[in-house]
Amino acid sequence: MAPVLYTMDVGYPTRGLKLVIRNANINVEFRPVDMLNGEHLSPEFLEMNPAHTIPFMKEGDFIINESKAIAQYLIETRAPESALLGRGFAKKRAKVNQMLYFDGTLTSKLTALYVPVLRQGATTVEEEPKKALLETFGILDLYIRKGYWVAGEFLSIADLFLLATIETCVQLGVNLDPYPNVKDWYTRCHKLPGFEENQEGAKQFAEWVKSKLSEELTWPC
């Protein structure tokens, strides 16, 4: 029986996890959750997931949240031959984990940018969060120059979670031209299963953020 994955497609954690599922060809039942109307705060959901975060997964009596933990579990149990984790080589897996953690750095910069708008009533985006996010793009550009994919010469789950995050930034107006290695990597990602699905979710998220702003979102050169 396929595990059940509770999702919200505008969120990059869900989209990153979906990219992993598409690229590892894993069978999962998707159940969208209406977070905007508080479905994730219902007694039924809090019983399953007290952290009330999305995505989370239920497989029989086993329940787990955190998108990257879910991704690793699904690959290990449902696609053990997949190379997305850097299978069989400790150093490869360490590089994958390094870039997964780096995605956490990137998402923290992105979160600092949009949370004041979506949760605190801000109608403009401050310049400092923009600069901090773009500085992180500069670091990523240096990482990618050392390999075809972010952890080296093989596609990994780090690429897929970073793609979900970076697509969100692109839809918010970040220009990739100053980051040629990131731009080339992003172009390669266009051919991956689930790319268009991820892009559509990112567009919806960006439109949501922009709808709250009193002026056009612009970025430092």
From TrEMBL:
Matching entries from Pfam families are given as: GST_C, GST_N_3
EC class name: transferase
Q: Which GO terms describe its molecular function?
A: glutathione transferase activity
For whether the record's keyword set contains Transferase, the answer is yes
Family, as annotated:
Belongs to the GST superfamily. Theta family.
PANTHER family xref list: GLUTATHIONE S TRANSFERASE D10, ISOFORM A-RELATED (PTHR43969:SF9)
Q: What is the protein's name according to its record? A: glutathione transferase
The gene name reads CSON003670
